[in-house]
Design brief:
The protein is an alpha+beta fold and 197 residues long. It is built from 7 helices and 6 strands; from the N terminus they run ααβααβαβαβαββ. The chain has a single domain, classed as NADH Oxidase (3-Layer(aba) Sandwich), CATH 3.40.109.10. It has a 4-stranded antiparallel beta sheet with strand order 1-2-4-3, with helices on both faces. Strands 5-6 form a two-stranded antiparallel ribbon.
């Protein structure tokens, strides 16, 4: 399914092609592509080079995959269970001195964005799922309280949207939209539109 963004300005094709599906094919993702996802995350920008990201990976049918599904909200578990790969994204909330790292979730966002772009290059998709139950994730995976569960990534080859329940099927087929760029870029003071567009 082609969901290329209709941009106002020319941007890199990978950025145009990246999107977040819920329908995944049953085809397994090659380990080489999984390796590249984590390598892309490894080289993401990081505040003070703390690299707070940690990942728990599960493959369809294994114990970790089932556990990740169990910590998702019901609405997400319904479709994510079919994803060939699920990755729980966790971040260390403190620095090497034990002081709070207030930017750990910012770093994790950059790491997961890198993963999404690498996936697009490799012909697979990543959907970032924030609908999870962190307390349950901590219990199920025995995660130390110095860490925070941020999101889950569903990874796989694009699938048939008709396999999804309604209304997800309709959302999957809908055209991608974004706010107009001139509504989000300001100058002089917050809310004053920049006249560069």
């Amino acid at each position: 399914m082609n969901k290329e963004a209709k941009t106002n300005y020319d941007i890199h094709p990978v950025l145009k092609q990246r999107w977040s599906p819920r329908a995944f094919a049953e085809k397994q993702v090659e380990l080489e592509k999984i390796h590249r996802l984590f390598e892309a995350a490894r080289w993401a920008p990081s505040n003070n080079n703390l690299q707070p990201w940690r990942f728990l990976i599960g493959f369809k049918g294994d114990e970790t995959h089932n556990k990740i599904v169990s910590v998702l909200t019901e609405a997400n578990a319904e479709w994510a269970d079919k994803a060939p790969v699920l990755i729980l994204v966790v971040g260390k909330k403190v620095n090497h001195k034990g002081d709070p790292n207030k930017l750990f979730s910012f770093d994790l966002a950059q790491a997961t964005a890198n993963m999404a772009f690498q996936a697009t290059v490799d012909g697979i998709n990543v959907r970032q799922i924030t609908g999870l139950i962190p307390r349950k994730a901590f219990e199920v995976f025995a995660i130390h309280d110095l860490y925070g569960a941020v999101c889950t990534l569903a990874v796989g080859y694009p699938g048939d949207p008709d396999t999804l329940p309604n209304p997800l099927k309709k959302q999957e087929k809908a055209e991608r939209t974004r706010n107009p760029i001139e509504d989000v870029v300001y100058t002089v003071k917050f809310g004053q539109k920049a006249n560069i567009f």
